[in-house]
């Protein structure tokens, strides 16, 4: 297997637990895990390039990317496989050098393209069926950290 040089992540259900709250003013809130924050930080220190590929386009996505120093953000994405191809081309990577973690059916095409497909423990059954790496943790509860530890080692 080609060594993994980059990790692309879905956001909702992977970096978050898939839930959201609406505040009284209509603002949307999501919860992120510091375990995953540390995993992304360690991966970046190890030289991995990180991308966020989300079907959503919210300010929360930009805030997370800014906090983590992630420059490759694909928001409002309806074709995640195309976003992975674009990311690979922009960064001069082979698709086999990319890991992608997703949790639902809209992630499957992207997962089929990459060198390492990954999923949180609570991903949809169709995603778990094709994932080469399945975290022991649920999305938003350390699944990304486990993936990053696996890739770094």
Précis, in short:
About 35% of the residues lie in helices and about 15% in strands.
- How would you characterize the largest beta sheet? 6 strands, parallel
Order of helices and strands: EEEHEHEHEHEHEH
Helix content class? 25-40%
Strand content: 15-25%
CATH class: Alpha Beta
Total DSSP E strands: 8
The low-confidence runs, each spanning 5 or more residues with pLDDT under 50, are none
- Mean pLDDT metric: 94
Second-tier CATH architecture: 3-Layer(aba) Sandwich
List keywords for this structure.
153 residues, alpha/beta, Rossmann fold, two-stranded antiparallel sheet, 6 helices, 37% helix, globular
Topology of helices and strands:
Blueprint: E1 6-9, E2 21-22, E3 28-29, H1 34-45, E4 49-53, H2 59-68, E5 72-74, H3 80-91, E6 98-101, H4 108-113, E7 116-119, H5 125-130, E8 133-134, H6 143-152
Parallel strand pairs: 1-4, 1-6, 4-5, 6-7, 7-8
Antiparallel strand pairs: 2-3
Helix pairs in contact: 1-6
């Amino acid at each position: 297997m080609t060594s993994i040089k980059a990790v692309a992540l879905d956001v909702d259900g992977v970096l978050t637990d898939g839930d959201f709250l609406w505040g009284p003013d209509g603002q949307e809130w999501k919860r992120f895990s510091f375990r995953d924050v540390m995993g992304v930080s360690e991966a970046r220190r190890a030289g991995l390039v990180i991308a966020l590929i989300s079907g959503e386009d919210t300010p929360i996505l930009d805030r997370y990317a800014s906090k983590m120093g992630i420059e490759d953000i694909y928001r409002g994405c309806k074709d995640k496989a195309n976003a992975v191809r674009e990311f690979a081309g922009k960064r001069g990577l082979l698709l086999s050098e990319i890991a992608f973690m997703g949790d639902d059916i809209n992630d499957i095409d992207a997962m089929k393209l990459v060198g390492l497909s990954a999923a949180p423990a609570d991903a949809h059954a169709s995603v778990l069926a094709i994932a080469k790496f399945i975290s022991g943790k649920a999305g938003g509860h350390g699944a990304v950290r486990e993936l990053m530890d696996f890739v770094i080692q």
